[in-house]
Structures are given as C-alpha cells and as structure tokens.
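Hello,

I think I submitted the zinc ion job twice by accident. Can you confirm which output corresponds to this input? Input:
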Amino acid sequence: MSDTDFPADVHVLRPRKVSVSKKLDGFLDQAGLAYSSSPIESDATRPSLGRINAVTCADCGQAEYLTREYCRCGHYLSGQLQDEYLTWEEKIHTEHSELSNEVERMLKPLRICYLLTIPFLLVPALHVIFWADSFALTLLLWWMPVLLIAGAGIFAEQHVICPLKDSALFIQNYTFETFLFERSSGFKTSEGW
Ligand SMILES: [Zn+2]
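Support: Only one job matched these inputs. Its output is below.
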C-alpha cells in the first residue's frame, strides 16, 4: 500500500480515544472544557444578552461585544449590525408612513363636520344682508353650534395628530444610539424582563 492509498472505509474511521489519565478526564468533564454543542450559558469573556453593548451573533448565537468587528466564530458582526440597523430604519419609516395615512383617514370625517357649520354661519350673515334693520342679538346664537363644532373638532384633531407629531419628531432625531437602545430594550421585552 502506497502513501496515497487509503482503506475504502477511511471516512468512517474515528480517532482513537486516548485517555491520558482518569483524573484529567474527570476534570475536563467537570470544568466543562470538553466540546459541547449547547450554547454557553454564562461566559465571563462575553457580554450579557440584552445589554446595550451586546450583539447576538447570527451565526453561532452567542453574545458578543458590539465593538468587535468579527465574532469569535468568524462571523462578520459589523455587517450584521449594519443590516439590522437598515431593517430597523426601514421599519420605523414604514410605520410612520402608515400612521400618517391612518391619521389622514381619521381626519376626513372631522373635516366633513366642519362643513356642517356653514349653514349656521350663513343664516346670520344672510339675515344681516337682507334684513339689516332687524338684526337681533339672538341671531348670534346661531354661531353657538359653530363654536361648539369647531372647538370639539380642534380638540379631536389635536388628539388624533399627537402620535403623528411624536413619530415625526422621532424620525427627525433618531441616531444609531437610539437603534442600539431600542434593540436592547426590545430584547428585554421579548425575554419578559
Ligand atoms: Zn459567532
């Protein structure tokens, strides 16, 4: 058999289990240094999940420091973070635009309500034009519904517009740190913290 000839079942060969000492085997088992496919629960060299300085590697699932460009498994963490940021940014813009449409939809009936005030404004005006001599103070009472409808309308409008104003303010002022903060608080919420 030459150096390049291998037995047909080479792929099923297993390394011989060499035991240096039973005490060492016992230590390795206890200290958990043997290879394990289960995630490491607590590792002093890694950040705690849910902290603002931590990122969960999409490849190995371990928590890694945000400042590291690459995870210890070799996964490109900076790229992963950029992707997450862009997805988040897209999401907040979509949500803002949906909210804007929703507010617009809710304001339509309010604007129709304003149209209802027109007759109450016109009656005293027409009365003054055609019967100027007999203008009575009671005609001013016609304007009462106008004041009520306009007042209630403005109040409702402010109430409806308020979340949209908050959202617009957020869109104007968010930074990368806002994303990091939301990310970590989102993790806490999903973990039931
Ligand atoms: Zn990793």
